[in-house]
Specification:
Shape of chain B: elongated
Helix content of chain B: 40-55%
Number of strands of chain B: 0
Oligomer: heterodimer
Largest sheet of chain B: none
Mean pLDDT of chain A: 84
Distance between the termini of chain B: 71 Å
Number of strands of chain A: 0
Number of helices of chain A: 9
Structural class of chain B: mainly alpha
Distance between the termini of chain A: 53 Å
Order of helices and strands of chain B: HHHHHHHHH
Radius of gyration of chain B: 46 Å
Shape of chain A: globular
Low-confidence stretches of chain B: 142-220, 240-244
Radius of gyration of chain A: 19 Å
Helix content of chain A: 55-70%
C-alpha cells in the first residue's frame, strides 16, 4: 500500500483511495477508541467520526506519520466525548449485578481455544484491567493506551496525543503507577506471572 | 517532599528504561543504580508485570467497516484556483466599501451631520462676524455724502451686509439721523438675501465681512466721509452685482465620492459576473 499516493488521490477527491486507508487503520482506530471510552458504542462512534473528520481535514495533513495523525483525530474525539460525559453524566446501558459489578462484555468471550472456565477467567481479567484504565484521568488514559495497548513508541505517541515527549514520559509513569495500584485490588484474578512481587511475598 | 519527588523521578526513569527510551548515558547510570539498589529492582519488576498485564488486553477488531460513502461526506473538490479566491475577496471588499460610502454621503447630505439650510446662513454668519472685535472696520466708499448729514441718499449698509453688523458699529455713524430709514434698508436686504447667501458660500470670511448692498450710484467717485482719512480707513470694497454665481457648484468631496461609488460599483458587478461565469464553467466540468 503506497500510503502517500493514496493520500494524494484522496486530496484530489478520490473517496475510494481514502477508503483503502480506512480499511487499513480501522481496527487500530476502534481498538484505541474502545480502550479509552470503555464501551463499544462510544468507540464505534468515535472511530467513525474520526475517519469522517480525517477525510474532511485531509488538507491539513502536513506529512509525517499518517497513523499518528489519524490517532490524534480519534483520541481528540474521545477526549471531547469524555468531557461531554463529565458535564452530562450518562447511565451505562450495561446491566449491573447487585454488587455493582457490570456483566462482562460478550465480545471478550471469543477465545475459542479456551474452555468455558478459562474464557470466564480471561473475561474477568480483561474486565478488571479495563476498569482500572477507565478510572484513570483521560490524559493519563490516552498515553497508557497509545503506548501499552497500541504499542507506540514515545515519539509517535507524542504526535498522536499532540503532546511533548517529556510529557508523555511523565504521564506514562504516573499512569502505570496508578494502574498498578488499581490492579492490586484484582490480585486473585491475575495469573501468577502478572502478580506483583509484593503480593507474592505476602 | 524530597522523597516524594525522588520517587516520581525514579518512576519516570523506570518506565522509560522499561520501554528502552533512555539515552545511552542515562541507561548506563540507571543500570549502575539498579545493581546497587534492590528496592529499585523490585519496583522495576513490578512495573514490567503491570505493563505485561495491560498488554494482556486483546486487540479488538472493528465491529464493522468504517468506509465512507459520498452521503457521509461532501466529496472533496480539487483546490480552487487562486483567481477565484481573489475575485471573491475583491468583490466582497468593493461591496462593503460601496455601502460605507453611500452611508457616509447620506450622513453628510440628508442625515444628522448635514449642514444647516441655506436660508438661515447669512444672518447667522453675520452675527458671528459682528461679534468678532478683531476685525478691521470697513467703510464703504461710494455715494457722495453717504452717511453724512443732509444726504438725500439712504445709508445702504455697513460691514458684512447683515443687520447685526450695522448695529455693532454705531461710532462710524453716531449722529446720523437715518435710523428711521433702517426698515427700508432691511426690506432691501431681505429682497437681496438669497443672492448674498449664495455669495457667502463661495467667498472667504474676510470678503464676507465686506459684503454689503451696493449703492445705486456706486459707480461714482468714491469719497471720504465723516472726516476719516482714506489712508487710515479699512479696505474699500467695490462690488458689482454681476459677480454673483449663477449656480451652486458641487463640493469637491462629493464629486470624489461619486466617482468612487461608480468605480466600486463597477468592480462589484464585474467581479460578481466573473465569479458566476467561473462557477458555471466549473459545474459544467
Amino acid at each position: 500500500m503506497d500510503e502517500g499516493a493514496l493520500i494524494q488521490a484522496a486530496l484530489d477527491g478520490d473517496l475510494d483511495a481514502f477508503n483503502t486507508l480506512v480499511l487499513h487503520y480501522q481496527d487500530m482506530a476502534y481498538n484505541v477508541a474502545y480502550r479509552i471510552m470503555g464501551e463499544p458504542g462510544a468507540a464505534d462512534d468515535a472511530a467513525q467520526e474520526g475517519f469522517i473528520s480525517a477525510y474532511q481535514k485531509l488538507g491539513q495533513y502536513r506529512g509525517g506519520s499518517f497513523k499518528a495523525w489519524l490517532l490524534r483525530i480519534v483520541t481528540n474525539n474521545c477526549y471531547d466525548e469524555l468531557r461531554r460525559r463529565q458535564r452530562q453524566p450518562v447511565t451505562p446501558l450495561k446491566p449491573e449485578l447487585s454488587d455493582g459489578e457490570t456483566l462482562e462484555d460478550p465480545y471478550w468471550i471469543e477465545d475459542e481455544s479456551a474452555n468455558p472456565e478459562e474464557q470466564t477467567e480471561q473475561a474477568e481479567l480483561q474486565a478488571a484491567i479495563q476498569k482500572c484504565i477507565d478510572q484513570l484521568d483521560p490524559k493519563f488514559k490516552v498515553v497508557l493506551v497509545l503506548v501499552d495497548v497500541e504499542g507506540l513508541d514515545y515519539q509517535t505517541a507524542a504526535e498522536s496525543a499532540d503532546t511533548p515527549v517529556g510529557t508523555i514520559k511523565s504521564r506514562l509513569a504516573r499512569a502505570r503507577e496508578r494502574i498498578q495500584d488499581c490492579l492490586q485490588g484484582f490480585w486473585e484474578l491475575l495469573p501468577e506471572i502478572f502478580r506483583l512481587r509484593d503480593e507474592e511475598t505476602t | 517532599m524530597k522523597n516524594e519527588r525522588q520517587h516520581t523521578l525514579d518512576q519516570e526513569l523506570l518506565s522509560a528504561y522499561l520501554d528502552g527510551e533512555l539515552r545511552q548515558a542515562e541507561r548506563q547510570a540507571f543500570e549502575t543504580r539498579l545493581q546497587q539498589e534492590p528496592e529499585l529492582q523490585n519496583r522495576l519488576e513490578n512495573l514490567r508485570r503491570t505493563k505485561l498485564t495491560v498488554g494482556y488486553l486483546p486487540r479488538l477488531h472493528a465491529p464493522r467497516n468504517y468506509t465512507l460513502t459520498p452521503d457521509m461526506v461532501t466529496v472533496r473538490r480539487p483546490r480552487q484556483a487562486p483567481i477565484f479566491t481573489t475575485l471573491r475577496l475583491a468583490s466582497a471588499l468593493a461591496a462593503l466599501l460601496l455601502v460605507a460610502l453611500i452611508g457616509v454621503e447620506f450622513l453628510f447630505t440628508s442625515g444628522p451631520l448635514a449642514r444647516p439650510q441655506l436660508g438661515a446662513k447669512p444672518m447667522m454668519e453675520a452675527a458671528m462676524v459682528a461679534d468678532d472685535a478683531s476685525l478691521e472696520p470697513l467703510i464703504l466708499w461710494g455715494v457722495p455724502g453717504a452717511g453724512g448729514y443732509g444726504s438725500d441718499e439712504p445709508v445702504v449698509g455697513y460691514g458684512g451686509g447683515g443687520e447685526a453688523a450695522m448695529v455693532e458699529e454705531p461710532v462710524m455713524v453716531e449722529s446720523m439721523p437715518v435710523e428711521s430709514e433702517l426698515p427700508v434698508e432691511e426690506e432691501i436686504l431681505a429682497e437681496e438675501a438669497p443672492e448674498i447667501m449664495l455669495e457667502a458660500e463661495i467667498l472667504p470670511p474676510d470678503a464676507e465681512t465686506a459684503e454689503m448692498p451696493q449703492s445705486p450710484s456706486s459707480d461714482q467717485k468714491e469719497l471720504p466721509i465723516l472726516g476719516i482719512n482714506p489712508d487710515e480707513s479699512g479696505e474699500i470694497i467695490s462690488r458689482s452685482s454681476d459677480s454673483a454665481p449663477s449656480a451652486v457648484p458641487q463640493p469637491v468631496w462629493r464629486l470624489i465620492v461619486r466617482w468612487l461609488q461608480i468605480t466600486l460599483g463597477a468592480v462589484v458587478v464585474v467581479g460578481g459576473l466573473s465569479l458566476l461565469l467561473l462557477h458555471v464553467r466549473r459545474s459544467a466540468v
